[in-house]
Prior knowledge:
The protein is 49% helix and 16% strand. By secondary structure, the protein is of the alpha+beta class.
Amino acid sequence: VSTQSTGVVMGRVSLALYLSLLCLLLGFTKPQESFEDEEWGEFDQIEEEFRPETSDHTEEPRIPSKKVVSTPRPTSEDLDPEISVETAGDGILVEEYDEDEFIGFEKEKSKPVYKPQNIEIDKNELILGNPGPSNYYLEGCFIAFIVLYLLNLLVGKRTNEQIARAWAKSFRNIFEENFSRVGDGPMMVKESHSQFRVSATGRINCIGLQAVLNLRRRHDLLAEFFSLFRSPKDLLTIDVAMEDMEPFLFAILPKYKERSYKKAYKDLESFGTPYPVSSLPEHLLVYTDAKELIPNFLHGDVVKTIDSYQDLIQFIWFSDQHPIYPKYKKLLRFVFKIPPISELEKMRLPIKMAIHFIDRVASLKLSSMARDKTLKIRAMASKAESKQSIQEMQESAQKRKMEKLQKEKEDLEKLSPEERFKRERKIQKKEAKKKNQMKYKTYKK
Length: 445
């Protein structure tokens, strides 16, 4: 009996311990579950009470559930720092819980958050900047530039065409009197908006004549802007390809452009010698390799024309070694400035002087001494040019050889040690073979 009673007692004690442990576990877990259920249950109630009425069916962000207590709105100083508080509307949302029930959990302190009110925003206010006319200054400048460029293009193009037509109308008769054929169909051919060309053939002592009007680039707005600083001129260039002429050089050029002309025309530096001529204006200089040409060319009418129209005469050049046209080495060139349309008649005598020199140059015969001198100068210049050409070829060959050696060296560095050794042995054998061939040729001689 004692044994049975002892077992019953022990069983009851064990049951009591199990029930106590179960109650203890339920005491730690059930309050947390009920708190969470209560919290999320109240969230739906608070969400419905404080949801703004809007026409659009948009989903509002979810906020944590809190109890609503109708008390006066406290300040931040009255709030207990141990209690997380959020305000909404006219009440205070207080999160109520016992910290002792959450032992082992970190305490999260939430800052007071106010629910935002509905703010109506005008979409027009979202536009960056003031939508006034000040935003279109840059676009207006671009449009103005394009319009100005197009207007300048039309006006400049028309102005150049008017100058070309007026020039052709004024001097057509001079070319028709001295050449049997002027132009191919129309007298003047338009090469570009600023360049016009007239060709004439059918005259003794010359192959043909070509007159080119190089006008200002009036159609180009940027060129017109830069012309304010450089002041370019409208120029007429007359080239005459001669059938035959003596070997000489004769040129009249302004002193202030001596360096630029010597750079452009190599024969001026190679053959010519400058001579001041008292009968010419002071700003003009004569270059020639035969001094006896000066009195032959600069006689009374020519000197008078040059002196009277010195503001129009830019450059006069006769040479049998023209560097620009290899097919026509014997060439006469005249460069005149073109005056305004109202003063085009000033060019009549300079153009006639250019045609006069065709027959004058063709009929000129140098003295034997002057001829020998000019031929000797040309031979020396040709020898020097040939020597310079050979030197340039040698320098070019040496440069190619160095580049080849450098490339071979770089290729050797990229190879492995074994491949590099094989390549070097191959090169040594090749060089030894060349040396043996040279020795054999020397021995045979």
